[in-house]
Design a protein that fits this description.
It is built from five helices and no strands. The chain is an all-alpha fold.
């Protein structure tokens, strides 16, 4: 899944949108949002994918690694698999 910006080739706009989402997410208290960590992983995977699309593999790998470092990451199977696949696309595992 891509943002509207990325779908039209505006990777800079997509990156800005993902960073904005991550900043807003940081304002949410994990104790009041049961999906907090899964959502963080999702945002980071999307950000990593957009960095990959933009050819910025170092930054992409950083986001995929950050997604895998989220507390309880292994319990969020879909997002965990996306992050691992993203690292594979970056040429690392």
């Amino acid at each position: 899944m891509v943002t509207a910006e990325e779908g039209t080739g505006d990777t800079d706009g997509a990156l800005a949108r993902h960073h904005e989402s991550l900043a807003r997410h940081d304002l949410v208290d994990p104790s009041t949002e049961p999906q907090h960590y899964r959502l963080e992983m999702d945002i980071r995977c999307r950000l990593g994918q957009t960095y990959t699309t933009a050819g910025r593999l170092s930054e992409a790998c950083e986001q995929f690694r950050a997604a895998l470092a989220v507390p309880g990451a292994e319990t969020h199977f879909l997002e965990h698999a996306r992050a691992e696949a993203g690292l594979g696309a970056c040429g690392t595992a």
